[in-house]
Design a protein that fits this description.
The structure is a single chain. The chain is of the alpha/beta class. It has a single domain, classed as 3-Layer(aba) Sandwich (Rossmann fold). Helices cover 30% and strands 21% of the residues. The longest helix is centred in the middle third of the chain and has 18 residues. InterPro entries: AAA+_ATPase (IPR003593), ABC_transp_ATP-bind (IPR050319), ABC_transporter-like_ATP-bd (IPR003439), ABC_transporter-like_CS (IPR017871), Oligopep_ABC_C (IPR013563), P-loop_NTPase (IPR027417). Keywords: ATP-binding, Nucleotide-binding, Transport. This is Dipeptide ABC transporter ATP-binding protein.
């Protein structure tokens, strides 16, 4: 995939309309353990993800953003069935990931890999990096011992590491190098989709830019699709073709990156973007400070979940759940302000 095509995607011109992954009406509720304080009460649930739908196209990067606790990481983990969904569908190659057998799921996980936020906690401190990277190849019976070593050496070079790093342990690497190792482990099985959960949030700004540029380079070379999960709007703007904004388990707005930053519609999206530093003072947005605390996902507000903090809330917002409205072909928003 060329750099020109990637740039055209950022302008909303997604030329490859083949859906690679479709998420439909995903719900993930976690039951709350009963204690002496709530033993006689009805079972309560944490509504981490509530009716989220989006599509990931071939070769694009879909950014999923929102503040901590909005359910974006749970969405990514549930897609791979690292946690079982409560309801919904995840269609990949026409099959529902949530309903296939464990053997079929094992094959799907070759095509869909995950890069975690903290690479150090996902690496075995007692194993050399080479052995850690070879492990997926052993599990999936790929190549001989010699061939597996060659594949690992090649992937280390791809992510910008040296061949001697094969023999080192996780504690001998910096944070940026560990994230490269996490990326290498995700790429080792030649996947089609990478789900990345806050992959650069623990890194300083200079290292962040290196990793983001590396991700763009690898995507163009290998024609990968990314689901990029982050709370940092600046980072998501740099790498994403389209963006979905989540609030308290729900997707409230979705649009191509340039469109979303130029014309945000949902009040929550406007508040998020107002906090993004802008070097050009002429285009600086007025800072929007949201009042009140984020509601508990154990007891979300009725109607629109954002109405308790929304400066434009009406009486109907407290009762009616806003439905997704298509403003343009690729820009939709769930807000009563746009019913007309």
């Amino acid at each position: 995939m060329s750099i020109q095509l990637l740039e055209s995607r950022k302008n909303g011109e997604i030329k490859d309309k083949d859906p690679l992954l479709e998420l439909k009406n995903l719900k993930k509720f976690f039951p709350v353990k009963k204690s002496l304080l709530n033993f006689n009460k009805e079972q309560t649930f944490v509504q981490a993800v509530n009716d989220v739908s989006f599509t990931l196209f071939k070769g694009e990067t879909y950014g999923l953003v929102g503040e901590s606790g909005c359910g974006k990481s749970t969405t990514g983990r549930t897609l791979l069935k690292l946690t079982n969904p409560t309801e919904g569908q995840a269609l990949y190659n026409g099959k529902d990931i949530f309903k296939i057998s464990n053997q079929e799921l094992r094959k799907v996980r070759q095509d869909i890999q995950m890069v975690f936020q903290d690479p150090y906690s996902s690496l075995n401190p007692r194993k050399r990096i080479g052995n850690t990277l070879e492990e997926p190849l052993v599990i999936h019976n790929i190549g001989s011992a010699k061939e597996r070593t060659e594949i690992v050496m090649e992937i280390l070079s791809t992510v910008g590491l040296q061949l001697e790093h094969y023999y080192r342990y996780p504690h001998e690497f910096s944070g940026g190098q560990r994230q490269r190792i996490g990326l290498a482990r995700a790429l080792i099985l030649n996947p089609k989709i990478l789900i990345m959960d806050e992959p650069v949030s623990a890194l300083d700004v200079s290292i962040q830019s290196q990793i983001l540029n590396l991700l763009k380079k690898i995507q163009s070379e290998l024609n990968l699709s990314y689901l990029f999960i982050s709370h940092d709007m600046s980072v998501v703007r740099h790498i994403s073709d389209r963006i979905g904004v989540m609030y308290l388990g729900k997707l409230v707005e979705e649009a191509p990156t340039d469109v979303l930053f130029a014309e945000p519609l949902h009040p929550y999206t406007k508040a998020l973007l107002s906090a993004v530093p802008v070097p050009n003072l002429e285009t600086k947005r007025e800072r929007i400070i949201l009042k009140g605390d984020l509601p508990s996902p154990m007891n979300p507000p009725s109607g629109c979940v954002f109405h308790t903090r929304c400066p434009f809330a009406e009486e109907r917002c407290k009762i009616e759940i806003p439905q997704k409205k298509m403003i343009t072909n690729e820009h939709n928003v769930a807000c009563h302000l746009y019913d007309k």
